[in-house]
Amino acid sequence: MKFTKMHGAGNDYIFVNGFEYDLDWKHISQIVSDRHKGIGADGLIVASPPSNDSDLKMRMFNADGSEGEMCGNGIRCLVSFARDEGLVSCDLQVVKVETMAGNLDVFPILKNSQMIGARVSMGPPILIPQEVPVRIDSDNPTIDYSLRVDGYDLSLGFVSMGNPHAVAFIDDDVDSFPLALIGPQVENHIIFPNKINFEIVNVLSRKELKVRVWERGSGITMACGTGACAVAVAAHMKGIMSGEVNLKLPGGDLTVRWDGVGEVELEGPIETVYKGFFH
């Protein structure tokens, strides 16, 4: 199987041409994502033929084999991969990508005719708890739900960007927070019927946030595009920021724009690590 390994702000995936291969992708994702016995990645993304009028379909699988609705970093890399593979025209100024979270527009950013990043129209955030989904007794957007986990009192905001997120703004440095301990307990908490992604956030200024991520199905990752969007939305709702914000993640910086209504826009880099064959 021919593959390309790419990353967006350190969030790394194995990319495969689904026009050429039709395999058990859930099983393949578990194998190739293993950082000791496989290639090593946060998951697998398959470029597939669209089922609607989009240019391309994205299927995204986490390291544990579960299929995810969307990946903000992965979708940028996917478009670059598709351009390189000849699956979409390099003349397209916007590439329409079908995902389980809906059809999204990706705007390639070029330098010397090479794609170095992209802007993505991520769609509007979903804020009603039952639609995120979260099992709590509220019909209103929630940004300060109290949850005690292993001795830690968390104040959570709930946002879906096509996939569910719980966001906690904390005073202690996110680098010292025991994310490997608390992350899986939040992910699998009974109030999250589909499990959940978990972000912890430090406010550095009204224009800059520091973030770490526990991704559902993958664990600690270097970055998360949908998570960055969820954090920006939660920050806006809390009155911390408005307009554009820079998010500093362990793997690099992402920029999110949201004016409180309409679609969220994510911008970030892409990079090819290497190409190869997996037997």
Structural overview:
The protein is an alpha+beta fold and 279 residues long. The termini are close together. It is built from four helices and 18 strands. The chain has helices at residues 25-33, 72-85, 179-187, 225-237; strands spanning 2-8, 11-17, 43-48, 56-62, 67-68, 95-99, 102-111, 114-121, 145-149, 152-160, 164-169, 197-205, 208-215, 219-221, 243-249, 252-258, 265-269, 271-277. The chain has an 18-stranded mixed β-sheet that branches. The mean pLDDT is 97. A hairpin with a 2-residue loop joins strand 6 (95-99) and strand 7. It has two domains: 2-121 and 268-277, Diaminopimelate Epimerase, Chain A, domain 1; 129-262, Diaminopimelate Epimerase, Chain A, domain 1. The chain is globular and about 50 Å long. Its EC number is 5.1.1.7. InterPro entries: DAP_epimerase_AS, DAP_epimerase_DapF. Belongs to the diaminopimelate epimerase family. Pathway: Amino-acid biosynthesis; L-lysine biosynthesis via DAP pathway; DL-2,6-diaminopimelate from LL-2,6-diaminopimelate: step 1/1. This is diaminopimelate epimerase.
Salient structural properties:
single chain, 279 residues, alpha+beta, Diaminopimelate Epimerase, Chain A, domain 1, 2 domains, 4 helices
State the helix count. 4
Through-space gap between termini: 6 Å
Write the element-wise H/E pattern from the N-terminal end onward.
EEHEEEHEEEEEEHEEEHEEEE
Q: Sketch the major β-sheet.
A: 18 strands, mixed
Which structural class best describes the helix and strand composition? Answer: alpha+beta
CATH topology assignment of the largest domain: Diaminopimelate Epimerase, Chain A, domain 1
Overall geometry comes to: globular
Mean pLDDT across every amino acid position: 97
Low-confidence stretches: none
Helix content: 10-25%
Domain count, please report it. 2
What is the CATH class of the largest domain?
A: Alpha Beta
How would you name the CATH homologous superfamily of the largest domain?
Diaminopimelate Epimerase, Chain A, domain 1
- Rg is 18 Å
- By DSSP, the count of extended strands is 18
CATH architecture of the largest domain: Roll
Q: How much of the polypeptide forms β-strand, as a percent range?
A: 35-45%
